[in-house]
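=== Discrete structure encoding ===
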Amino acid sequence: MADSFKIDFQAHGKVESGDLIVFVGENLKPTAAVAKQLGPKAVDLIAKAAAAESFKGKAKSAMSIVVPTGLSVDRLIVIGTGGEKDRANVDFAQLGGLIAGKVNGKLATVVLDLPETEVSPEAAADMALGAQLRRYSFDRYKTKKKDEDDGKGGGRLVFSVADPAAVKKAYKAREAVQQGVILARDLVNEPPNVLGPQEFAARAQALTKLGVEVEILDDKAMKKLGMGALLGVAQGSVRGGRVAIMRWNGGKANDKPIAFVGKGVVFDTGGISIKPGAGMEDMKGDMAGAACVVGLMHALASRKAKANVVGAIGLVENMPDGNAQRPGDIVTTMSGQTIEIINTDAEGRLVLADVLWYVQDRFKPKFMIDLATLTGAIMVALAQEYAGLFSNNDELAERLTAAGKATGERVWRMPLGPEFDKMIESKFADMKNSAGRFGGSSTAASLLQRFVNDVPWAHLDIAGTAMGSPATEINKGWSSGWGVRLLDRLVRDHYEAR
């Protein structure tokens, strides 16, 4: 992330230098106020340049005019807003990312006056958030770095708005979210030799600077608690497992907390059921669920969310050494239930089983949401466009779906039911950790459901969205930081004290 890239807000007025960004619809005309600011020569120039460039003003299209006649700016960048349907469904964060990708890295001013589109202070703040997220890059291990003035870093992006004070207030919370997303992206991008379970736990411990209470459970503490499923995954690695519990107490003292649980397999070889070698390097990202939870706790604490929140992450490395668990082993979970190991590569559900039980038992939360890069099967069903949503509570599922639509981090509800639960029955234990290929995401979720009791719960399978996901206007890297914006919106909309 280029620290020298700055965001600012100012009242509408004349722009005399740098890049100037304006918006037009399919008629290629800016609003009357923007047309007056530009002057008739510049407005006529837009139409002539559009004809020469075959620019139609479609949504997300852009056209640059260098040294525009009648203006003192270096470039006039024209962004299309499309037709009526497009204007009714603007993703302002993505639009902000699009703009950040077009400017030259010096000074750019965006006139936030869109044809037939209301831009609220919150929408303007979302655009600024999107612009910042677009600038992210992870290059800390490169010895040769690009200059910041190459158009990818540095510079100042100014949003010209009707009410700068209101936008600045809205953006303050977005800055906290931005920091949380960046933290999550950084954690997922870190190489596995740098970020083991202990090192990851230390990153979580750093949240104490923001007022988060953090507690770390080591192997000895987990053994005492009876977390045999999590420890079974960890036993093949020379690096011991950890559980990090983060608590933000921003709500009323007697209010039950809300809880978020993350799978943190810092590297997943598959264990004895070893994965193919091709692409195994990507398994450093098998802790993206835990990364999201840490990023979310950072965001909530930074913006001082008025809610009591617990974040818990299970951190292990799944390795195939001589002490690793085997297919056929039976482990005893903290709940007392037993699990037969069919496939050691179905390890994330074992980690989550103990952490979910611990959280519901100790904290008695209003609800629990877990996030995990859990199954390849979810990518077969939903590609990389949606995260799979499994839930025992319709209200929670509906609220997550709405938050997904609002942030662009979309979820799709998948089935749970007794048929899938029956598929994980074992001949030798209470359940088995894998029921085979068919319904793989639903059977994995069914196992998790056995560890939540009657607590409202949702499981998000983020295997397709958290790492190696398709590039968007706000994410050009390998790690997306998926889930931080979604869950922050969920908390903000429904679970903060008013």
